[in-house]
Automatic annotation (TrEMBL):
Transmembrane segments: none
Classification via PANTHER family: PHOSPHOESTERASE SAOUHSC_00951-RELATED, PHOSPHOESTERASE YJCG-RELATED
Protein's UniProt name: 2'-5' RNA ligase family protein
GO MF term set: ligase activity
Record key words, sorted: Ligase
Pfam family, one: 2_5_RNA_ligase2
Organism: Streptomyces ehimensis
Superkingdom to which the source organism belongs: Bacteria
Length: 205
């Protein structure tokens, strides 16, 4: 059956997703139009195609144990000079993202893997472009704020054409939706393709 390349992420919902994607385009990032705004949980990982059913079962189990949580974005950060990336900070919800990604990559699971760098949840707004444009992104989004409720995550697969496509959405456990601290979620960002520039590093788009 060969191999496939998979990734797992949390989509940034509308209206925030499209806004940040358009700003990224405006800074001159050539990959922006093909990358829906997201927070990575599992960077691109090559697996045997025959393992897909086991992977989906594993992700469903992770999601079933999860609970909706608030995510808040505020201001900008950068991985420069280590990696040419400017991002919007995840200032609330980062611990939950870390919990999820650790369980997605668990050593006993079907997508066990080590990361090249320590996990740092973020939303990329500029990657691999001119320094002047990176500086613009860092400055112009310094006051950016957004907040919503995360209710699940999604599995994507990279096609032979280099486009990432949504395979399945995994909502958190049904019993979690009665939690007192959960408010109505903002509608999820439209599931457009994610191109092959999505990489697993501090530069993860």
């Amino acid at each position: 059956m060969g191999t496939v390349t998979l990734g797992v992420s949390i989509a940034v919902p509308e209206p925030y997703g499209s806004f940040l994607q358009k700003r990224r385009e405006g800074f001159g990032d050539p990959h922006a139009h093909g990358i829906p705004t997201h927070v990575t949980l599992l960077p691109p990982t090559e697996v045997d195609a025959s393992s897909l059913p086991a992977i989906e079962r594993h992700l469903a189990e992770v999601a079933a144990a999860g609970r909706p949580f608030r995510m808040r974005l505020s201001g900008t950060g950068t991985f420069r000079p280590l990696s040419p990336v400017v991002y919007v900070n995840v200032v609330e919800g980062s611990a939950s993202c870390a919990w999820l990604q650790k369980r997605v990559r668990d050593g006993s699971g079907p997508v066990a893997r080590e990361l090249q760098f320590p996990y740092h949840p973020h939303v990329t707004v500029a990657h691999g472009i001119a320094e002047e444009a990176m500086d613009r992104a860092f400055t112009e989004l310094a006051d950016y704020e957004a907040e919503w409720t995360i209710e699940g995550f999604a599995l994507y697969e990279q096609g032979e054409d280099g486009i990432w496509r949504l395979e399945r959405h995994f909502p958190f456990g049904a019993d979690a939706f009665g939690a007192d601290d959960v408010s109505a979620a903002v509608p999820r960002q439209d599931d457009a393709g994610i191109r092959s520039s999505w990489t697993g590093s501090p530069g993860c788009p």
